[in-house]
Specification:
The complex is a heterodimer of chains A (about 180) and B (about 180). Helices cover about 20% and strands about 20% of the residues of chain A. The longest helix of chain A is centred in the N-terminal third of the chain and has 26 residues. Chain A is globular, with a radius of gyration of 23 Å. Helix content of chain B is about 45%, strand content about 0%. The relative contact order of chain B is 0.13. The chains are: A alpha+beta (about 180), B mainly alpha (about 180).
């Protein structure tokens, strides 16, 4: 009988240890890379509340995907500017997204230059190809995106060895600007 | 204590000692040279330009292997640049230094297996370099080629010492696939 009691106590101790271990493991299941990325984005800009106009040219999906958990959940999002030098946002640009299953979806930029695709509207199968139309100007991305739904994931400023710089409509700032209902 | 009980205790101790020796044996570092007796040989650098250009478009974008966080790093005009003064598409040419850097990155992944494949002593699917894009092994970038398609022929040709520049030329074409099957 005494032996049985000892075994029972050990078993409880083991269960307690296992529970504590699992809880500790669970509490450290965050993604430090994502946490660091979100932290690096800083606070909201004064006067621009969270919403469709906020945080232009930041990686939308850092927060707005399933892991980030911020509503609305997005599958693709980004910001379109006029040219490679300026950061004049261009509104009313049609952003066409083509996925590897032959499906497509068109989103339109707002006056912050932001466009977004809700996951509930279109969840593309990668790779995806993006094309822009602003008036008579048409641009296509040179390469596909193989996993990144945030334009700024590869197109953050400044341009350099590991970033293409912001997305723009015209190559030469001296060329006639695209139609922009927000200017 | 009875002789039988003594014998049982001895047997138990022997079994425990055996288990401990097995366990400790498993903890010893493997100090054998991974390539002992194997003279390393790599596929040709001279013939690497075609595969490198094809991989640039299909594997080396900034959201995939065009990142410094990857074991397989690819450098070039559609992705990460070796010189941080450059940026993707500017200059619109992959430099010799970038081809060299990508070459050493690819060949350093599995040097012994790559040597055996080149010598005809192992199958191409012994290389993660082939298994992953074929989708035979977990690959975050999903399946990118099927056996016998242009990218596959390009990479397999190069690692087996029978380069196929025509397939590489097709594989490096950019742009989204068109409904008629072209690019």
């Amino acid at each position: 009988m005494a032996v049985h009691e000892q075994r029972y106590r050990l078993s409880l101790g083991g269960a307690l240890g296992l529970t504590i271990g699992l809880l500790s493991a669970g509490s450290s299941c965050g993604d430090p890379v994502r946490d660091e990325l979100v932290k690096s984005l800083g606070p909201e800009k004064a006067g621009v509340p969270p919403g469709p106009m906020h945080r232009p040219n930041q990686p939308c999906l850092a927060c707005h995907d399933e892991e980030g958990g911020e509503e609305p959940l997005l599958s693709v999002g980004g910001t379109i500017y006029q040219d490679p030098i300026s950061t004049i946002p261009v509104g009313d640009v049609a952003v066409s997204i083509f996925d590897s299953m032959g499906r497509s979806f068109v989103a339109t930029t707002n006056c912050a230059g932001n466009f977004m695709v809700r996951s509930s509207e279109f969840a593309p199968a990668y790779p995806i190809w993006l094309e822009l139309d602003a008036g008579k100007i048409h641009r296509s991305m040179d390469t596909a995106s193989f996993r990144e739904g945030s334009c700024a994931g590869c197109h953050a400023d400044p341009a350099g060895g590991t970033s293409a710089g912001h997305v723009y409509i015209i190559d030469d700032p001296m060329d006639p600007p695209p139609p922009n209902p927000c200017q | 204590m009875s002789p039988m009980r003594n014998a049982k205790i001895t047997q138990l101790l022997q079994a425990q000692a055996l288990l401990v020796s097995f366990a400790l044996g498993g903890c010893q570092p493997d100090t054998r040279s991974p390539n002992s007796g194997l003279a390393l040989e790599f596929p040709s650098r001279e013939d690497f330009t075609g595969p490198a250009d094809a991989m640039q478009v299909k594997c080396g974008t900034l959201d995939c292997h065009g990142q410094i966080g990857r074991n397989l790093r690819l450098y070039g005009t559609y992705g990460m640049r070796l010189d941080n003064a450059n940026n993707p598409i500017d200059p619109f040419v992959t430099s010799d230094d970038e081809y060299d850097a990508s070459y050493w990155s690819v060949t350093a992944l599995e040097p012994e297996d790559m040597t055996r494949v080149l010598k005809g002593e192992a199958s191409v699917i012994d290389l993660a370099f082939i298994r992953k894009p074929r989708g035979l092994e977990k690959h975050k970038g999903h399946q990118l080629m099927t056996k016998g398609d242009p990218l596959d022929r390009c990479l397999v040709g190069w690692v087996t010492g029978t380069p196929d520049p025509d397939s590489c030329m097709i594989a490096k074409m950019t742009g989204r696939p068109q409904p008629d099957g072209g690019t």
